[in-house]
Structures are given as structure tokens and as C-alpha cells.
Design a protein that fits this description.
About 25% of the residues lie in helices and about 15% in strands. Strands 1-2 form a two-stranded antiparallel sheet. The chain has a two-stranded antiparallel sheet with strand order 3-6. It has 2 domains: about 80 residues, Alpha-Beta Plaits; about 80 residues, Alpha-Beta Plaits, CATH 3.30.70. By secondary structure, the protein is an alpha+beta fold. GO terms for molecular function: 4 iron, 4 sulfur cluster binding; metal ion binding.
Length: about 220
């Protein structure tokens, strides 16, 4: 037997439409609240070349994914639930796939909102982050060996990272030194570090270089 048709009055139709709209609005509000409450950025979340400051970037980025599609190396991803960046925003993890510093910067040129500076004059101005030697206890050079992988793989070879003579506890060692004014934060050094956990890491620049002191003892006062 065919199901009987339900008779719906105009008032009922309007009421049900209003309820459906309310559920949709509630769902949208919940999602927006979740995105807003998510951590602003993880220490490992590196932005594509030419990204605005983190706060401005999050306002300008519309999560379209065009920069991800434009990257020829698959470096970029849109953050999913639980990853180290706000949901839907582009980022890369240097230890997995670094930025290969394309001269024409296709990811930035694909950005329709200006969250990435499409007029970036050079990939050397990309300012994705800065490399920091975090593994002073694990870096082979601190153990007296002469590893130079991070220096040799650096795309800005001879400028962004160098091995410099240092005397530590009476031992003359060759220690990797990052020149932050030249380092773009591409992450190639972190990717190629021979250790299981890289001794050199790329951090967002404000985190890697540190901020101003909060009291009179701070170094910038």
C-alpha cells in the first residue's frame, strides 16, 4: 500500500523551515566557534612563501587550497582536524617535505586574497621561518665529528648556514651557525639532517628568534 501523504499547513511549513534554518545556523556557529577556539598556530606549522604575519594571514586566508594545488612538489597541505595549524589553512612540515624555493613562487601567485604576497620580489624574501640548531646534545659536530650536511644542502649555500670554529670545554669544534638574515626557513636542512630527530629545526620566525623581554631584565630594554 502506498504511504499516505502528510497534509502540511502553511504555518507548519514555515515553522519547519525556521527549525531547519536554526539547526543550520547552530551547526555553522559551532564550527566557527571550534575554529576560533583552536590553537592559533603550532610551533611546527610553517606557512607558504610570502605569508602575512600569522594573525593577518588567518584573517585573509579563505582556505581555497589554490596555493596547495599550485605547489609542484606537494609541499603544502590544508590542515585537517588535529594537525598543527588552524583547520583548512595551508602549511608544510619541513621534516617531511621542505619548500623547494621555486623562483617563480607559484603558490604565492595563486593566492586570490593577498594572504600570500604575490608580488614577492624574490624567493629569498619568502620569510617562512628560521632554522635553529636545537640539538646541542645530539648534533654530530658537538660530539667532535665533522658533519656538514645542513650546510651543503642549504639552497642559499655559503650564506644562510656556515660551519664556524668554536672552542667548547677545551675542544676545537666546527659548529653550524644559522645566519637568520639570510635563512628563508625553507626547511631543507631539517629534512636532510642525518639524525633520527633533526638537530636543526625550522620554526616560525617570531618563535625561532624570540620576542622582546617583558621586564627591565629583558635583552631588548
Amino acid at each position: 500500500m502506498a504511504p499516505s501523504k502528510r497534509k502540511v499547513t502553511r504555518r507548519q511549513a514555515l515553522t519547519e523551515t525556521a527549525k531547519a534554518a536554526g539547526v543550520a545556523c547552530l551547526g555553522g556557529f559551532s564550527l566557527a566557534a571550534f575554529i576560533k577556539s583552536a590553537d592559533p598556530v603550532d610551533a611546527r606549522a610553517l606557512r607558504p612563501p610570502g605569508a602575512l604575519s600569522e594573525a593577518a594571514f588567518q584573517v585573509a586566508c579563505v582556505h581555497c587550497g589554490l596555493c596547495v594545488e599550485a605547489c609542484p612538489y606537494g609541499t603544502l597541505s590544508l590542515a585537517e582536524w588535529g594537525e598543527g595549524a588552524p583547520l583548512g589553512t595551508p602549511f608544510f612540515t619541513a621534516r617531511e617535505t621542505p619548500c623547494y624555493m621555486c623562483k617563480d613562487i607559484p603558490c604565492a601567485k595563486a593566492c586570490p586574497t593577498g594572504a600570500l604576497d604575490r608580488d614577492l620580489p624574490s624567493i629569498r624574501d619568502a620569510n617562512m621561518g628560521v632554522a635553529v640548531l636545537v640539538g646541542h646534545e645530539t648534533c654530530l659536530n658537538y660530539k667532535g665529528l665533522n658533519c656538514s650536511i645542513c650546510v651543503r644542502v642549504c639552497p642559499i649555500r655559503g650564506e644562510a648556514i656556515s660551519l664556524e670554529d668554536q672552542e667548547i670545554n677545551g675542544r676545537k669544534l666546527k659548529i653550524p651557525v644559522v645566519h637568520s638574515d639570510k635563512c628563508t626557513g625553507c626547511g631543507t636542512c631539517e629534512k636532510q639532517c642525518v639524525l633520527g630527530h633533526a638537530a636543526i629545526r625550522v620554526l616560525p620566525r617570531d618563535l625561532g628568534l624570540g620576542g622582546k623581554g617583558r621586564n627591565r631584565a629583558g635583552r631588548n630594554f
